[in-house]
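Bench notes, afternoon.
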Amino acid sequence: MIIEDGIEFIDIDNKKELLGYYPKIALLFEESFNRPLDKELWDWAYLDNPFGQPLVSIAMVEGKVVGHYALVPMNLENDSSELSGYLSMTTMVAVDYRRHKLFQKLAERVYMKIEKSLLPTIVFGFPNDNSAPGFVKRLGWKISEDYKVVSLKPEQFESVASFLDKHLTEDFYTLNIDSDVVKNWRISKPNQEWGYKNGFGLKEIENGYDLMHVNCAESFKKSKVNTPVNMLLEINSELEQEDIEISFPYRFGYRLFNINKEPKLFVQMSMSDIF
């Protein structure tokens, strides 16, 4: 705990301690997002998470949480190795304290703990228009604007499957949900329904599906889905030639720690659809 200019900074790296701050975090969440914080969803993301302990730094003034920077553990794997991974989410600063650089100070406290661990680590997220500039300027993130949610027609599955083949190789890191523990956690998010079978997972939506996760291009190509499927893809020149309909942009960003070589990443909806 450190006190600076009347602001108390508290670093949290275990679930039990974090739970004690939930009521005060929930108040800041409602102030920041104009809606209540779903306790069941919060428990699922932080307390039930099979990847380990969260990393959170909060700022308090007179017993009130006025700043919050949190990382939810979510390791990424390829066929030969694993990266310690964290999803950055629900960054919040109370209105009266947005000139105190709390966003940067809280993040830096969390990042310092990661650096000291010496573990190869990636912190990633999906910043919106308001937060993206701050993540780049103040937190040193790299952000790509090439990711889009696209609407795939069934007749396009085969051509996209060839793209997937290249990204489901041993070189590309992604979320691995093949273990029962991770799969059961990931598909049990409150207030949603989707399954994972034969190497891909679909969530039913109006007039189609969201492709939440895939690890087998062949299974996707041979699927009997006969309605459009939304998928998160990094659009390149190869895909542009396929005349794929882009539904909306889906910005992706990250920062690396204790890593010398830039990793290849295969970003999926299952890495994003948390809160």
